[in-house]
Amino acid sequence: MTYMAIPNIGNYTIALATAVESLGIKAWASTATTPEALKLGIEAAPESVCLPLKAHLGHFIEADRAGVEYAFMINSVGTCRLRYYRHMIDQILKDLGLKIKIFGLGFDGFKPPIVRHFAPGPITFIKPLFHTVLKIKVIDELEVAAWRTRPIEITPGDTTRIMNKLLVELSESKTMAETRSIRKKVAGSFADIPVDKEKQPLKVGLVGEISFLRDKCLNKNIEYILGSQGIELKNFFLLGEELENITRIIFLNQSRRKSLFRITDRYLQNSVGGHALDSVANSIHCADEGYDGMIHLCPSGCMPEVSVRPILKRVSKDKDIPILEMSYDEHTCGVGIATRLEAFADVLMERRKCGAAAFRREKARRG
Q1: What pLDDT is recorded for position 361?
Q2: What's the mean pLDDT in 122-151?
Q3: What share of the chain in percent tops pLDDT 70?
Q4: C-alpha gyration radius of the chain
Q5: Which run of H or E residues covers position 143?
Q6: Which residues of 74-99 are buried (b: 16+ CB within 10 A; e: fewer)?
Q7: Ramachandran angles phi, psi of 137, nearest 5°
Q8: φ and ψ of 109, to 5 deg
Q9: Please, what is the Cα angle at 258 between 79 and 147, to 5 degrees?
Q10: CA 188, CA 149: separation in Å to the nearest integer?
Q11: Domains of the chain listed by start with CATH number
C-alpha cells in the first residue's frame, strides 16, 4: 500500500486524509506535531528558519523512516518565505539521503502535479473530495462549539471529552451518510454538557500564523488553556471559511483581500504575505465587536507576522483593545506560555470590572 504524509494542521488532517484517499492511496498523519518529529526537524534544519518549517521537516523525516513514499505541503505567495520552503525541505531530505517525494499544495498547483502522478478515475477522485469538504464543515462546527462551551462547563474536561469522541467517529467515517449523522449529533452533544449559564466569560480572538493557530504541539495547547481559564475563544483560521473564500475568487471573482484592505485602510495598504493582513483586519473587527482582547501568535522570525506587530500595537492603542504578542521558537516553554496567558486573563478581567464600575458611576451621576 502506498502512503502519503499530511502536514499537521490540527483536526483538519482528519478531513485531508479523506482527500488523500481520493487518489487511491492511504494517508499518514497526526493532528499535532510530535515532540520527536520536532526534535528531528530542529536538528536537520538551518537555525534561522521558522519553527513551522522545522515541524514540517521533522514530520516528513519521521514519515520517510516509516516507509512513506510521498508527502504534500501547503505553499504560499508574497513575501512569506513559505513559498520557498517546499524546495528547501526537498533539498534537505535529499541531503539526508531520504527518498520521500514532496508535492506542493497551493498556489503552484495542487491538481496538475499530484493528480497526474496518481491518475485516479473521475468518480474515485471527485466523490471523496465532496466528503472531505463535508468533514471540514463538521470540524469547523466542532471547533466553534468547543470554544463556546469549555469556558462555562461545570465539570472540567467535559468539552474536550465530547470533542475527542466526535473527532474519533469522524476519522472513522467512510461515507457521507455517516459523516452527516455525526454532524447532526454535534449541537446536541455539546448542549448536553452541564454549564454555568450565569457565567459571562471573557471573549478573546486568536490571530497569527496558521501552523501556530492549529497545531496544539506548537502553540502549547493554547485553546485548552484559555478555555480552562474561562475565556471564550475565536480562532480566526477556520478551513471551511478559507475554502469558501477560494470558491468566491474562482467562480465569482470576489476577492476577500479587497474587503480586508478596506478594514485595514488606516493601518495597512499593502500585502505583506502570509495571513498578516488577516491578523490586522481581524484585530480591528474584534475591537469594533467588543472583544475583551486579542492574542497574536507568531513564530520567531516570521516575516509577515513580525512586520505587522507595530501596526497591531497601533490598533491596540487606537481601539483600546489589549493585544498579547506571543512569540514561539524551539526553546519556548509550555509553563511560561500558561503563566503569560493567566496574567493576560487577569488583566482582561480587571479591565472588565473597572469598565463596569465606571459605567455604574456614570449612570449614577446622570441620575
Answers
A1: 64
A2: 92
A3: 90
A4: 21
A5: helix 122-149
A6: bbbebbbbbbebbebbbebbeeeebe
A7: -65, -40
A8: 100, 110
A9: 85
A10: 12
A11: 3-120 (3.40.50), 130-198 (no CATH), 200-367 (3.40.50.11900)
Give the mean pLDDT of 320-333. 94
CA distances 88 to 66, 67, 93, 157, 163, Å, are 21, 21, 9, 41, 36
Q: Residue holding cell 477556520?
A: 238
Helices (H), 266-333: 276-288, 303-307, 309-319
- Which has the higher per-residue pLDDT, 253 or 266? 266
Share of the chain residues as helix, strand and coil, in percent rounded to the nearest 5:
60, 10, 30
Report DSSP letters for 294-312, one per residue.
EEEEEETT-HHHHHTHHHH
Residue 60 CB partners (closer than 8 Å, separation 6+): 5, 71, 89, 93, 98, 100, 102
Which three-class secondary structure string do you get for 213-254?
Answer: HHCCCCCCCHHHHHHHCCEEEEECCCHHHHHHHHHHHHHHCC
Q: What proportion of the chain, given as a percentage, has pLDDT over 90?
A: 65
Strongest mean pLDDT among 126-130, 190-194, 207-211, 240-244: 190-194
Where are the extended beta strands (E) located within 94-150? 101-105
What are the residues whose beta carbons fall under 8 Å from the beta carbon of 191, sequence distance 6 or more? none
Q: Which of 32, 27, 34, 104 is nearest to 69 (CA)?
A: 27
Higher-confidence residue of 198 and 79: namely: 198
Q: What is the pLDDT of residues 276-290, one digit of tens each?
A: 899 999 999 999 999
